[in-house]
What we know:
Elements: E1 3-7, E2 10-13, E3 18-25, E4 33-39, E5 46-52, E6 58-60, E7 68-73, E8 78-83, E9 92-99, E10 117-118, E11 122-127
Parallel strand pairs: 2-11
Antiparallel strand pairs: 1-3, 3-8, 4-5, 4-9, 5-6, 7-8, 9-10, 9-11
Amino acid sequence: EVQLVESGGGLVQAGGSLRLSCSASGFTFDDYAIGWFRQAPGKEREGVSCISSSDGRTYYADSVKGRFTISSDNAKNTVYLQMNSLKPEDTAVYYCAADPLTKVVAGRPPYEYEYDYWGQGTQVTVSS
């Protein structure tokens, strides 16, 4: 059974940092696209970042570029999202998602419909 489990969320002050983890079981990261999405209250889910586990290609939304870093440890079947210089507008539930067929393309955001496997989400709250 494929499972994705996010961890690392919490409450942090503006300007602070958090590192989210997405641990996968039931499959290996050999050739997957792993995406991080977030959903703030009253807003649609948006793709924040994604990474190709095979070649390390990445994408970042403009809103997080320069502040967030995505990385993959294939040996641990884990993807990380390092979030620095957090802002109150980063407050959301963050989800990781994976798909074996989706390709990470430069400049192209991840879309929900392209990802088959999803975690349960982790809350990130940034206070001002």
